[in-house]
Amino acid sequence: MFFFDSWARDIASGDWLTRKPLHPFVSWQAEVANIYFRENPDEKNRVDTIAHGLEPARLLWNEWYGGSQFHQEPLYPYLIAATYRLAGSDPRWVFLWQMLLGIGTNLLIYQITRRHFGETAGLIALSLATFCGPLVMYELILQRTALQVFWSLLLVEVVEYAYTTRCGSAWLGAGIVSGFGILLNSTLLPFSISILLFLAWSVRRSMGMAFHRIVPFCAGISLVLIPLVIRNQAVHAPLFSVSSVGPMAFVAVNTIDYHPEVGFWVSLDYVPRIMGKTHGRFLPAVIETMRTHPNATSYMQQFGRKLESALHWYEKPSNENFYYFRLCSSTLRCMPITFAFIGPLGLLGLCLASRRISLHLFPLLMTALAFLPLVIFYVVSRLRAPFFSMLIPFAAYAIVSITKNLRRRNVILATLQIVSIAILTIWICRPLPPDVDLIRPADYMAGLTCYYIPEAQQAASHGEWIRAVNAITEALQMEPGFVRETSRLSSKRIMKASQREVVAIFSDLHRLHSMILLHCGRSPEAKAALMRACELSDVAAQH
Question: Which of 144, 245, 350, 386 could form a disulfide with 76, with the two C-beta atoms 3.0–4.6 Å apart?
Answer without folding.
Answer: 144
